[in-house]
Amino acid sequence: MIYHLVTLLLAPLFIVQGLYVRRVTPKLPEPVGARSGTSGSGPRTRLLIVGDSAAAGVGVDTQEQALSGRLVTTLSSTQEVSWKLLALTGDDSGELLVRLKSEAKEALDTVVVSVGVNDVTGRTGSEAWARNLQNMIDILKTNFSAQRIFLSSIPPMHIFPALPQPLRWWLGVRAKKLNAIMKKIAEANAKCFLVQAPFPIDNQYIAADGFHPGEPAYALWGNHVAELIQVAIGTK
């Protein structure tokens, strides 16, 4: 109730602050490096990483430092990993869904999904968010035969230094609401898991733009997800 009242009263301020953030926040590029490959030896696992700028690794210089690199490095210590990254800066859940629908069908073992920040800033409604996530899961199971789907929760936007107050608080509440919906979706679907990486409240984990993960955050996030995958497939 309070959130909706604040939204109505402060909507003009949020719009102004949002425009300011877009104007002054540095536009970091997606990191260089391979977006597919095979690494390691042992039992084979086929991995797909999909999502937005965080999945793409914005905030670091190379893919080896990003989510994909951290995942592959850890997983390849116990198995052969055949992997592919499908991510684009700016994608929200609806745009990612369209992208997945256009991909050729293939058999995969594990999919890691990172999406949601652009849904928060773009004001994707709760029903649309839930519908997009469910459709995404259905497509990953049907078109990609995914055996395990890991949904990464939206990061703690209430601590992003690039966002001024009260916009930071407002987007943080939005992120928590969408995360609660993601949790319900994950619990309602077999072979689906919610990932809540334990990001510390510390600016060293945030990139130079004050908005994306920094290298320490990618390391923590990637290692955390890799360990969950290893436990799920029985290699740890």
SSE blueprint:
Layout lengths: L1 H23 L11 E4 L4 E8 L1 H4 L10 H9 L4 E8 L5 H10 L7 E5 L2 H5 L4 H19 L3 E5 L14 H22 L3 E4 L19 H19 L3
Parallel strand pairs: 2-3, 2-4, 4-5, 5-6
Antiparallel strand pairs: 1-3
Quickly list its features.
single chain; 236 residues; alpha/beta; Rossmann fold; 6-stranded mixed sheet; 8 helices; 6 strands; 47% helix; globular
Give a verbal description of the structure.
By secondary structure, this protein is α/β, with parallel strands linked by helices. It has one domain (2-233): 3-Layer(aba) Sandwich (Rossmann fold). The chain has helices at residues 2-24, 53-56, 67-75, 93-102, 117-121, 126-144, 167-188, 215-233; strands at 36-39, 44-51, 80-87, 110-114, 148-152, 192-195. It has a six-stranded mixed sheet with strand order 1-3-2-4-5-6. Strand 5 (148-152), helix 7 and strand 6 (192-195) form a beta-alpha-beta unit. Helix 3 (67-75) crosses helix 8 (215-233), helix 4 runs parallel beside helix 6 and helix 6 (126-144) crosses helix 7 (167-188). The radius of gyration is 18 Å and the shape is globular. It starts with a helix and ends with a helix. 38% of the residues are buried. The mean pLDDT is 92.
